[in-house]
Design a protein that fits this description.
By secondary structure, the chain is an alpha/beta fold. Helices cover 36% and strands 17% of the residues. The protein has a 6-stranded parallel beta sheet with strand order 4-3-5-6-8-7, with helices on both faces. A 6-stranded parallel beta sheet has the order 17-16-18-19-21-20, with helices on both faces. Strands 12-11-13-14-15 form a 5-stranded parallel beta sheet, sandwiched between helices. Helix 1 crosses helix 2, helix 3 packs parallel to helix 5 and helix 16 crosses helix 17.
Length: 575
Amino acid sequence: MRYHCSSDRRDILIIRTGNGAKILIDALKNEGVEVVFGYPGGAVLTLYDQLFRSSLKHILVRHEQAAVHAADGYARVTGRPGVVFATSGPGATNLVTGIANAYLDSIPLVIITGQVPTRFIGTDAFQEADITGITMQITKQNYQVKNVDDLPGIISEAFYLAATGRQRPVLIDVPKDIFDQNISTTSRQNDNYFKDDNQILYNEAQIKQAVKAIKNAKRPVIFGGGGLIRAKAAETLTNFVDKFKIPVTLSLMGLGAYPGDRDLFLGMPGMHGSITANYALSEADLIVAAGVRFDDRVTGKLENFASNAKIIHIDIDSTEIGKNVFVDIPVKGDVRAVLDCFQKELQPGNTGEWLIKIKDWKNRHPIPVGRSGPGCSLKPQFVIRELSRLSSNNAIVATDVGQHQMWAAQHFIVREPGTFLTSGGLGTMGYGFPAAIGAKVAAPDREVICITGDGSFQMNIQELATAVHNQLNMTIAIINNGCLGMVRQWQEIFYNKRYSTSVLEDNPDFVRIAEAYGAKGMRIKDEKEVAAAIVEAKKIRGPVLIDFMVDAEENVYPMVAPNCPIYDVIIGDEL
């Protein structure tokens, strides 16, 4: 086995003074934290008092859920843990959806919640909630600090756990009196303790089996996921794919790990994936799965998934390997190190005939773009293609959840890792806008676009105040079809058009709401106006909301019905 380890171990005497709140702020700065997203309240007043005196930048959101989503977006763009502050009780419980979202998508966060004083814990005191118990299943680790002297070590450990191995959220619950207490001891800390856990990069025996299988494959496919982006393995994957001419498909979370405009890219697979990607997975004789978890939205009916293929599964988390599909060759380890090793052991093979077949599928089965022309309503696919065409190559896109999310995944060309932010595992409506805010805070010089729906946007619409207050230059593109689009689509196809509570008949005037918050608003109904509106939005200082009024009956195709094989595709009537 290969290991990553450090032999340079030394103890450092840490002298810390001040109360728990100061110690926490100092510890965050020691971890390289520059920005915190949060919302103050009674249990964290001492913490916010210390924050007032510090150099840390604080982004005041208008709802705690938005703080987590914004920190999530920040983490996806920077690759570092996002940090959140919230008070006890409802402040803490408002974080739960965002924590679950980050947990399922493997995003590193460190969340600091206030708690009632230690002597009141368990008494149902005012604004008390057992947030460590509530979040036990959706955090990698959580802590309740009982002694102020433990606080520095807990913070250091929390950042280490959040950022290493399979990245995930870590929560630290701090009672109010701990913030107020002065630390009573100096501490001796090993500066390598949390930086070195002898993490296995890969197993050499597994590598040999995988290399042999790749050499023998005639119809190989690489199936990559969000783990590639978390491991900073996109460049390694791109070099590997281009060198060995192996076609690649990327999950929703993996978009950007390989440039979306290259010939070897098959598109996204699964329920709303490209026909080419689904056919390729179904007819492949080898699938190299890298940093994916074989979600049910990708596999379709498990009994029929990739029945012709051997599967190599590379993942840092061994519990994912073999969890959903049978794996012939498990490779537990760092995906970047494993792909590097593959490159050293392999020579380019002959995939020519396979690539010809794939090219034919691409030509015969393009992603539907919707009918347009005189008398037709504005098509959402056209809007998203224009957003893509007019954006910079490294633009960051954050989406909400629903039809617009799938259209964005299909039609927005994602060229770089960490530039397509979306809720994959939990499917959280309300994620996109605050995530876009976090992305813009992380990368103020980059173009940021939020693609959202009229349903999703209203779940965190109040964050217009956050975007305006911080003068964040960003485009908010509402794909407004006057309904909960994906719900309506399923009701049309599977429930005989019984549109039970899915039509949003009383949508507000989003343009006027934007203007009320101090943002610029536009409404677009015609194809001829789309490009000009997008270009104009980029010139305006601060957030710009464009309300695109699109065809309410447009559906997302291709589509695979539930419990059907992914090669059994519903095309719709648009081709």
